[in-house]
Design brief:
459 residues; alpha+beta; Cytochrome p450; 16 helices; 47% helix; globular; binds protoporphyrin IX containing FE; Cytochrome_P450_monoxygenase; Cyt_P450_sf; Cytochrome P450
């Protein structure tokens, strides 16, 4: 965690409230947020030339921030004045226990210290072959030409990939588990977004079902840990679970089985949907921009041809990476990062009261016209190396920043780079005409209602 910068004056007593957006007298902006969160947040940010605007959700005060400076102040410079927020913690704890998406303070710092080295740029290339093999296997099973929903397909494909990366296993043929996963994620979304937000112990039918589903998933992953312990394989690291089992704290001890379970589930949950949505948006944007798609195909043909893509090829496929990064600029999967002020503080000289919910709006941050020319246009050349380096600090944050920055960012970027290349190499994808696709924010930003396409395996 970074600490409050001593150079920032704490002018709390004199600080004015931030500019306020007027909402309904009773509900504030609660209804708009429930109906269409991303449009509501983007609308609020549009009214905030300084990148900060206050509003209410019912009686609760909230602010939305959307400029590089305001975002960095919340996530880095004054990070100690904010925590994740009660709602997120309540929604994630039942499935993810005390994993990195829930823990705070010294425990969180200790866990990051031993987990991050296993996801470093030096470590992640060992996962490249698995990612490519899983993607190729998945595609090969399609009977093409076929009409598919790319959102659903990317969801299943990334589920297969992440289950292999973490557990060297598959959840494919386990129908009960697949249903439990889908329903548990749905419950999480409901807990994150519903106005009432009843905790899991309240005995509603929805909660009872959620408890069963969570127990099914946790039992499935516990079994991997138990089997490896029993077989004496707990220090082998062919997959991420193996790494987590072999890693040691400073005093030489390892993680307890219950924490291992929490961290494995957290990595699994944090990586699957984000990667699926990023890839679905990438395919959608390639489908709507034939000139970009043509450049991607040309790059692959020139540098790789028909053989299997390998990690060593990635340096020669810069445009594929630019496409993936630009897709995450326009549609960052984690479009909204929530925080809550844990004490009275200030932000850009405005007062922020303890308890205020803070929405980091990456969707609008990535569309700042003073940073990105013609921000609505899909233009992967923005991420050409020298232009990317010239971006102001904090202007492009698909993985967040500060003490909670995504530990899986290197893995996610490598996976996105590989999948963009492999899918373009193996498939021709034509979007079906007449679709009206909009970004919809549940936990992540997803193309809604789906992306219907005709896919055909290239011979
Ligand atoms: C395209 C893919 C991904 C995106 C867009 C993404 C985005 C993010 C963002 C924005 C955060 C910060 C949340 C915050 O500040 O509250 C985060 C946190 C996290 N991500 Fe990722 N992520 C991706 C893939 C992954 C992968 C592959 C893994 C693990 C293998 C992972 C594991 C995590 C974990 C454990 C956290 C919590 C970190 C903490 O609070 O200390 N993510 N991710």
């Amino acid at each position: 965690m970074s600490t409050t910068s001593p150079s920032l004056p704490l002018e709390r007593a004199a600080a004015p409230a931030p500019p306020q957006a007027r909402g309904s007298l009773l509900l504030g902006h609660a209804r708009q947020l429930q109906q269409d969160t991303i449009t509501a947040l983007a609308g609020l940010s549009a009214k905030a030339p300084e990148g900060i605007v206050g509003f209410r959700i019912g009686r609760s005060p909230a602010i939305v921030v959307s400029t590089p400076d305001t975002v960095r102040e919340v996530l880095i410079e004054r990070a100690e004045d904010y925590a994740r927020g009660r709602r997120q913690t309540r929604a994630l704890t039942p499935l993810m226990g005390q994993g990195l998406l829930v823990s705070e303070g010294p425990m969180h710092a200790r866990q990051r210290r031993i987990i991050l080295p296993h996801l470093s740029p030096r470590q992640v290339p060992k996962y490249a072959d698995t990612i490519v093999a899983e993607a190729e296997r998945y595609i090969a099973e399609w009977k093409t030409p076929q009409e598919v929903d790319l959102v659903a397909e990317m969801n299943s494909m990334t589920m297969d990939i992440v289950t292999q990366l973490l557990f060297s296993s598959s959840s494919r043929d386990n129908q009960a588990l697949a249903r439990a996963i889908t329903e548990a994620f749905e419950w999480e979304m409901h807990a994150l977004t519903s106005v009432l937000g009843l905790p899991l112990w309240v005995p509603t039918a929805r909660n009872r079902r959620a408890r069963e589903n969570i127990a099914t998933i946790r039992a499935w992953i516990s079994r991997f840990i138990e089997e490896r312990r029993a077989a004496g394989h707990d220090t082998q690291s062919a997959d991420l679970l193996g790494d987590l089992m072999s890693t040691r704290y400073e005093d030489g001890s390892g993680m307890s089985d219950s924490l291992l379970l929490d961290e494995a589930l957290t990595a699994w949950g944090a990586s699957q949907e984000t990667s699926a949505d990023a890839q679905a948006w990438t395919l959608y944007l390639l489908g709507t921009h034939p000139e970009v798609r043509e450049r991607v195909h040309q790059e692959i043909e020139d540098r790789v041809g028909r053989r299997t893509v390998r990690h060593e090829d990635l340096a020669g496929l810069p445009y594929c990476m630019q496409v993936f990064k630009e897709a995450m600029r326009l549609f960052p999967p984690a479009s909204m990062i929530p925080r809550q002020a844990v004490r009275d503080t200030t932000l850009r000289g405005y007062t922020v009261k303890k308890g205020t919910m803070v929405f980091i709006n990456a969707y609008s941050l990535h569309r700042r016209p003073e940073v990105f020319d013609d921000p609505e246009t899909f233009d992967p050349d923005r991420f050409e190396r020298s232009r990317e380096r010239a971006l102001p600090k904090g202007a492009y944050l698909p993985f967040g920043t500060g003490g909670n920055v995504c530990p899986g960012s290197h893995l996610a970027l490598m996976e996105g780079h590989l999948l963009t290349a492999v899918l373009a190499q193996r498939l021709s994808v034509e979007l079906l005409p007449g679709q009206r696709i909009r970004p919809h924010l549940m936990v992540n930003l997803r193309p809604s209602p789906g992306v219907e396409a005709r896919v055909c395996l290239k011979s």
